[in-house]
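DM from R.C. (forwarded with permission)

"hey, sorry to bug you on a friday — could you get me a structure for this? deadline for the figure draft is monday and I only need the backbone to look sensible"
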Amino acid sequence: DKITNIVMMGMGEPLANFDEVVEALKRIVLYTGISKRKITLSTAGLAPKILELPGKAPDVNLAISLNATTDAVRDRIMPVNKKYPIKTLMEACRRFPLKPRRRITFEYVLISGVNDSSEDARRLVRLLRGIRCKVNLIPFNPHEGSELQRPSDVSVLAFQKILTDSNLTALIRESKGQDILAACGQLRGRHDKSGRKDVID
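My reply, with the result:
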């Protein structure tokens, strides 16, 4: 099948390899003919590099792996937050230039008892106020060695309703690749027996 869209995400932070990623984007566009508008770069939140991106790779779509609404929770599941806390990340997103009809995508992996409460949803609404965006809600994918759990369908739908009732576009996404531990949050791999605490990719 013909490739029509490309998403840069997964194990490894694209913006931590900034120059090479920009060069790769240029080559993809040059040699495949895929429009930059069909390419999405997902980041865990390297705020300074987010602001560099438009000057180096204009028209590429931006996605943010947010996954929490407080620094306490995000520090735990996304250590990058200790360097670039939520306030800094949101300020970068507000300064990110968007062309008409373009939006930032915020990815939010829902984890039972961690970030899926109604108060989390209301905080998310407040965080995203004033940002042209959409939200992808992704129920957590449980796997061996993780203490984190997937929320119930009822909880997921209730979370989504709070967002949509506040005029946010919020879609529920199911990750592919669960059978090979390649879905969201599973990219530690089958052979990682190090006992590390849960970290979201």
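R.C.: lifesaver. DSSP finds six helices and six strands in the chain.
me: no worries. The beta strands are 6-8, 39-43, 61-65, 104-110, 133-139, 169-172.
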